[in-house]
Amino acid sequence: MPVVDPAAADGVFSLLWLVIALPALGAAVLLLGGRRTDAWGHLLGVATVAGSFVLSLVAFVGLLGRGADDRAFTQHLYTWIEAGGFRVEASLLYDPLSALFLLLITGVGALIHLYSVGYMAHDPRRRRFFAYLNLFVAAMLVLVLADDYVVLFLGWEGVGLASYLLIGFWQHKPSAAVAAKKAFVVNRVGDLGMALGIMLMFATFGSTAFAEVSRVATEATDGVLTALGLLLLLAACGKSAQVPLQSWLLDAMEGPTPVSALIHAATMVTAGVYLVVRSNFIYENAPVAQTAVVVVGAVTLLWGAVIGCAKDDIKKALAGSTMSQIGYMMLAAGLGVAGYAFAIFHLLTHGFFKANMFLGAGSVMHGMDDDVDMRHYGALQKAMPVTFLTFAMGYLAIIGFPGFSGFWSKDKIIEAGFEDNLVAGLAALLGAGITAFYMTRLMLMTFFGEKRWEKGVHPHESPKVMTVPLIVLAALSVLGGVMLLGDWIVGFLAPVVGEAEHHTPAVPPIVMTLVVVAVVAVGVATAWLLVGRREVPRTAPQRVSVFTRAARADLYGDAINEALFMRPGDRFVGDLVTFDNAGVDGAVNGTAAAFGGMSGRMRRWQNGFVRSYALSVLVGALVVLVAMLAVNLA
Amino acid sequence: MSSAAVLAAEFQAPSFEYSLLSPLLVIFGVAITGVLVEAFAPRGSRYLLQAVLAVLGVVGALVATVIVGLNLVSRGGGTAHGSIAAEGAIAVDGPSIFIWGTVLVLSLVSVLLFAERRLEGGVLSFAGQAAALPGTEAEREASTRGLEHTEVFPLMMFAVGGMMLFPASNDLLTMFVALEVLSLPLYLLCGLARRRRLLSQEAALKYFMLGAFSSGFFIYGIALVYGYAGSMNFAAISAAVSGRAGGEGLLLGGIALLAVGMMFKVGAAPFHAWTPDVYQGAPTAVTAFMAACTKVAAFGALLRLFYVAFGGARWDWTPMVWVIAILTMVVGSVLALSQTDVKRMLAYSSIAHAGFLLTGFVGAQQVADVGIGEITSLQAVLFYLVTYGFTTVAAFAVVTVVRDAGGEATHLSRWSGLGKESPVVAGVFAVLLLGMAGIPLTSGFTGKWAVFTTALAGGAWPLVVTAVLFSVVAAFFYVRVIVLMYFSDPVGEGPTVATPSILTTIVIAVGFAATLALGVVPGPVLDLAAAAGEFIR
Predict the structure, then answer these.
(1) In this structure, are residues A93 and A147 in contact, taking their beta carbons and an 8 Å threshold?
(2) Taking CB atoms and an 8 Å limit, are A609 and B206 in contact across chains?
(3) B113 located within any domain
(4) How does this protein sit in the membrane (chain B) (predicted)?
């Protein structure tokens, strides 16, 4: 298991800080500049991220020019927190893993920024939107460039904040505000795991830096390592919308579509996978935690896929799919050294094709007056040829059509899954079939069949500024598989995550591939039989099977949360409030009444309340006294 | 030899280290001068005189504190340095100096808030004539004549003096006197609001009665401890505690009762009941001052009392403080969820913060347990107090500028849509709230990090898990306010943000800057806290 041991950054790598600073500066200028920047704000937003992309590319080329064991650099910025042994450096770590993320975040990020110029053209708050997007990119870059868990946590909270601002961006919609709040609350549960994990790490190792922790990780006891692994997994579940913290992602679709593409498909939601892969030095020593990662991944990939089957809202169907695909990545990451590289590979290809499809969905919505109901679509392939063709590339990639990027990456995960254990492999295989089903359904309902458009809707192709990013992303969706040529990505990431020893699989890979393709074909065919050949009703049928109903209700994720956490929580708060009402809130009401001229009554109340406060002090004092004496003298 | 000569020979004049105690003397001197100004200066010139005097006094005391701090001598090996002054009554050591500095800087900021006049149309935000009954002709007349109570400045100075003496006391009696000196002016100040005077007077009375009640516990505790140790002096008590002279019942009872008095002052549950009412009713400037400075002073005294005098009985009081800490975090975080008044919400937030501080306090990592250069619980708590103080003062300062026809618009529903009305004020308040929630790059994060990791290193992991859990709950209600400001539409005609004078603007700016600076570069202040070392004994 490799130890993180970076050299000091020099040459092009000493410009690393600029990769973060550019979008951060963009956000600052746009937020502080106010209305003066309205005219050109969006251009600045695009330019900063594009600049970061160029820098990332230059650094990446520089990295390729180095030997395999000479590809990790650290750039020390300043000492963030220091008090003796209590020390956190604000340093950046650039290694093959961060390098790939940098390219994904700034590359796809720049395309989505560009797309947003067209998509948000008529929004009066476009400048603010770009400010938030830039803020997000900066925070995400901090997350993947951190060389210390505390700095990573900073990025982690930063992307959360930006995501939260962007989900609620259309604040006039109450549903958006609610969704933003939900995302925040659920993510806080994950962050709890993160905070506790980091503190446990500090208490155990005396440091939170990757380099130090990876060096001494094996010295900790199994119990501590397992606890660390599980806490970090909890964090990953929150950020990456994995079961049981999955419920926020579907609601997050309330945000503008470019946000869904950038944050809730391509980058932020994959941060959990990054965390697990980055913490490989912990998981490799904590087999129980690794198993937990596999279980979470397998459950989520099916959970998300099933939800995707029943959604009529195009964005929610895609969100279910995102959840499911991240499940694949989690599963791969849980497989250990055999799977880390494939998790990242799938993460990258997914970043391409899912961003592509989300932006495609945005383009469709743009043409359909922001209608998201697929039952009102149909026959759009003629009206929006570019959107259709690019979307089709994404579609073929996600279902794993041979030759497309998703085919290579998903295939590898299924293969690795079967090698690890049968259940994981079967879950991944089944997921591939369901994916083929719901994506075909989505395709058919949107682009084929009869027109089911609302009155007065005239679908039209989107402007160039929106279609160009679609074309680029479509090309990447098709070609993303080249990263696997000669196992390049496996070798490239080996210095960070280690390399599995080669052994002959029980089933020849080609047989495996044929089985997967067959399952996918079954999925497509089923969708064709059930959706393609029949007429799609304009309103969702209500007399449906119990399974469809469950899938429509997100498999009752919200209901479960409500029953397990919210209601007991509400009751607890309620009881406390009732208890407090006797003293505290009553006084407020009493005071309000006094303003109405009822000072006499008020005085009587007031005495009562001080008495009850004093009583609580007295009881508290007695309890303290008795407790002290009982504990110590008994 | 005559008897007079014998007496003279036996009598030793008490030595009084004037230079060491100069910060205290300056503040008390300014307070007394303020009273004289009130008596002799013409009404028209009093405001300016008093405000300038208070500012100069605090600055002077701050300079004196720095000078004293630089000249502390090492004592008894280890990291402790300082001297016992005033015949053993006052300990001027590293932690004292740090707390003095913190209290003085926060007081300086608060004085500016006290002196704000523009928000109330040219008069102080304190009652024009406190003796006039609310709603009477006399009150209206005081209002039309533009009367002001400039006594608030000397009152505040007395409270500041008490707050400095409290954590530096080295015996129980001094500590009790300091407690009263800091409390009595505050009781009075709480009742002086210009608007909503009934609420204010009610708050003052409640605070006074409950304060007196808890002082009773405190002094009974003193009596019991004296009965056990035969001395009021912390060093002597510490020696008696370590020696276990017998009669532990007295000691344990004494510790419990002293704890009650202390926990009341820091606002820990179940002794917190006064906090929301008083914070809400008191003039907001006083609330800001009280929330920040009293908490700092009371925690300083709590730390000294329990670490120095009762350090040897640590295993006896730890379980009790665990329970109080957990209860405090639960009550503070959970009840804040249902608050509809921003001042009450901040009050519950301050209760929750007391719980977090107690976590650091009880997860006691002592000098003996830590490696060279690591910070102890004491230093972590001191740092947290600084971060908390600045954020809190600024948050209450923001409350003073969000107004409607009835004065400050403290009902949370009035804050909805503030982001549209005034992006700057809403933005600043949002950052302050994020700071209280402990989001990274704000001071709240570094403070919590310091306190929780030292508590964890001290082995108090169940407490830390609880604390992290409830800081998540707490984050929720802070964010609820942000949601309200940004994602909700204004109710009715919406809130207005009054333009304050430069004074309040400075307060908000300083608190805001400190919240960010202590999150981004906490190093210097952490170093200062580490340099404070340990209490001298």
Answers:
(1) yes
(2) yes
(3) yes
(4) Multi-pass membrane protein
Query: Is the per-residue pLDDT at A626 higher than 70?
Result: yes
SS3 content of chain B, % helix, strand, coil (to 5): 70, 5, 25
Residue B357 confidence (pLDDT) above 60 = yes
Mean pLDDT of the B441-461 span: 86
Per DSSP bridges, beta strands B402-404 and B496-497 are antiparallel
Asked if A153's CB is within 8 angstroms of B259's CB, the reply is: no
pLDDT, position B315: 83
Mutation site, A585, A612, A625, A629, interface B, largest B CB count within 10 A: A625
Whose CA is closest to A23, among A50, A51, A48, A58?
A48
In a domain, B6, yes or no: no
Alpha helices in B170-273 (DSSP H): 172-190, 197-229, 234-243, 248-266
Q: Which residues contact B219 (CB under 8 A, 6 or more apart)?
A: B176, B261
Range of the structural domain that residue B277 is part of: 16-532
- What confidence category does residue B2 fall into, taking pLDDT thresholds of 50, 70 and 90? low
Is B323 at the interface with chain A, CB within 8 A? yes
Q: What is the pLDDT of residues A319-359, one digit of tens each?
A: 999 999 999 999 999 998 888 999 999 999 999 999 999 99
Torsion A456-A459-A464-A466 (CA) sign: positive
The confidence score (pLDDT) of residue B181 equals: 95
C-alpha span between A305 and B340 (Å, rounded):
42
- Say how many CA atoms lie within 13 Å of B517 toward its Cβ: 11
- Compute the CA torsion angle A218, A221, A224, A229 (nearest 10 deg): 40
Least confident of A235-249, A391-405, A597-611, B163-177: A597-611
Closest approach of B491 to chain A, Cα-based (Å): 14
The per-residue pLDDT of chain B, averaged, comes to 88
For chains A and B, CB pairs below 8 A equal 202
Full-model pTM? 0.84
Is B9 a member of any domain?
no
**Burial class of A577 by CB neighbour count within 10 A (0 to 12, 13 to 18, 19+):** middle
Residue in B273, B450, B453 closest to A583 by CB: B273
Residues 75-134 of A with CB under 8 A from B: 78-86
Beta strands A7-8; A73-83: pairing state: parallel
Q: Which of B158, B340, B21, B206 is nearest to A603 (CA)?
A: B206
**Ramachandran angles phi, psi of A80, nearest 5°:** -75, -60
| Tokens describing residue A581 | 């009402």
For A271-328, write each residue's pLDDT tens digit: 999 999 999 999 999 999 999 999 999 999 999 998 888 888 889 999 999 999 999 9
Closest CA to A158 of A136, A175, A127: A136
Q: How far is B34 from chain A (nearest CA, A)?
A: 33
The residue length of chain B stands at 537
How many whole angstroms separate alpha carbon A87 and alpha carbon A213?
13
Q: Which of residues 482-511 of A touch B (CB under 8 A)?
A: none
Among B206, B316, B371, the residue with its CB nearest the CB of A610 is B206
CA distances from A622 to B39, B63, B210, B253, B298 (A): 46, 44, 16, 10, 22
Verify whether the Cβ–Cβ distance A628 to B320 is below 8 Å.
yes
Angstroms from B216 CA to nearest CA on chain A:
11
pLDDT at A596: 36
Residue B405 lies in a domain: yes
B257 touches chain A (CB under 8 A): yes
DSSP helix/strand/coil, B441: coil
Look at residue B443 and tell me whether its pLDDT is greater than 50. yes
Sheet containing A7-8, strands listed edge to edge, beginning at the edge strand earlier in sequence: A7-8, A73-83, A86-94
Give chain B's domain count: 1
Judged by CB atoms closer than 8 Å, whether chains meet at A628 and B253 is answered as yes
Q: Token digits for A7? A: 């050299």
